[in-house]
Amino acid sequence: MAMGFCVLAKISKRTVTFWYQSDSNPYAPLKMRESNEIPLYFYVNGNDFIFGAAARERFYKNDPYAYGNYFEIVKDPTKHFSIYGNKKPVKQLFYYGVEQYLSHFLNTVLYKSDSIESYRQQFPLRFLFEDDIEANEKSLIENLFQEAGYFNLDRIGYHHTLFNILTQKQILSNNKAILFMNGIDDVLYLNLYKGVKAEPIGSAKLPGQGADPRVKILADMIVEYIILQNSYLSINKDTEIAFLLPFCAALLQNISPIIKGEAELSDGNQYWFNVRERNLNDRLQYYANDGMIFAATDDLLRANNLQADGVMILLGSEEISTPYFSDKLLKKYHHVIALQPVDVKDTMLAIFEAIANAGYSVKAKVPTAPPVLPRPALPTPKLPPPLPPKKQSDVPKPVNIPRLPEIKATPNTKNNPVKPPPLPPKKS
């Protein structure tokens, strides 16, 4: 059966963000409660399974049934959780969490009363991985879903579509390499591409450099203020500074002499703060830590025989898309451009358009090898003729994973845990 819809999950180390499109309507955020961006925390106890903010709350209260730091804990093969009395490896938490959203989508957007099982094989599911997710982590996630029987699954080449859009707008030029800089959780990711076709040729990551220094100093000042006012709090300062960077980037867009408001920390609680712009500027005078970014950029260009003039630097996240940050870079590199929200929106539109044009299905692909650094050109080999279409009997049987309780859209107050349906009465 052809499916006229699609769900896209954008995955980073800390969150999963869901969008959907159906019947070629414009794409839209897929929300279950108040947001389509879900913090990566899980809570499993008996038949209760919670994914998101309510699980995060329990995690920060040290609840033994709550799980965070997903991409760290999956490295330990001995870690398990139990659901419906079955022991499962912790990597499957992610699968259960996402499938809860897919069930919600079927029930409340498509108004289907069927369960997700009957849709798994054909369900059009697309993953978009943030720059902080490594190659082996991408494979882990994809394998989880393929093992569970999701065959209409694909990975979105985000940078390729983005560069395409920027070339059409004449922001990028066809004859230059592109250095894409992205700040996530105060780590700066540098990805160097040969050109607008997005062939990767080099990368680096710089912890502690993922934001305009002013954004970082403001986050530091806010955390200091909160600690002073709430002496009972035991918090990890570095974690909270990294968490506050997007919030501080937004604050600095229209700054006033006194910067105040409520800041939400990583545990989901909000605290009042009040800092002065003058103090921020005083601290900036003593900040001289940008050298690392120049050194890493120079190393990447040198390793690929590129001159500053042959490269366009693209600033990809709001924490670094600031005049201060780009002016610093422009002193040394000739072409520096900050990505605008409208470019990101146009890229997402193009991604969903391509998914719809492909009929929401994935063409069987030749498996791709990891990118190899360029070698002297060889004549292009001829590909063998395509394989005959698979018979139904050849399709691998999905692994049977017990189904999660379905979630009906209820007029939910924020963060209410979802109760599973009651168990049937025991026979005497």
Overview of the molecule:
- The chain has 428 residues and is of the alpha+beta class.
- It has 3 domains: 5-156, ATPase, nucleotide binding domain (Nucleotidyltransferase, domain 5), CATH 3.30.420; 159-209 and 289-345, Nucleotidyltransferase, domain 5 (2-Layer Sandwich); 213-287, no CATH class.
- The protein contains 11 helices and 18 strands.
- The chain has helices spanning 53-60, 70-73, 92-108, 135-147, 158-168, 213-229, 237-251, 277-285, 291-303, 323-330, 341-357; strands spanning 5-11, 15-22, 28-29, 37-39, 42-45, 48-51, 66-67, 80-83, 86-89, 125-129, 153-155, 177-184, 187-193, 200-207, 258-264, 270-276, 311-315, 335-338.
- The strands form 5 sheets. Strands 1, 2, 3, 4, 10 and 11 form a 6-stranded mixed sheet that branches.
- The longest helix has 17 residues, at 92-108.
- It is globular.
Q: Number of DSSP strands?
A: 18
Q: Which CATH top level class of the largest domain fits?
A: Alpha Beta
Which assembly state applies to the chains in this document?
A: single chain
Total count of domains: 3
Q: How many distinct helices? A: 11
Main sheet overview? 6 strands, mixed
Mean pLDDT: 85
Uncertain regions spanning at least 5 consecutive residues? 365-381, 390-399, 404-419
Region (Disordered): 373-428
Biased composition (Pro residues): 373-389, 418-428
